[in-house]
Predict the 3D structure of the following.
Amino acid sequence: MIMNQSNNPPEGYEKKFSDFIEICEKARQDNIPQVIIHHPSVLGDTYEEVIESLSRLADAGLSLCITSR
């Protein structure tokens, strides 16, 4: 499992963002270099959740694209 520098994801993160975690893992496994999301809130509702999501992207070697509204 990929984690942030503190190795302590925010409480409930894995359950709340299980779809995002799965997308990142699938992209890495399939050698897809970029994750595309439709809205920044996909990354989290709090600073800690956003940082955890960005850390997971970086740890997986993925870049991020956010589509326009």
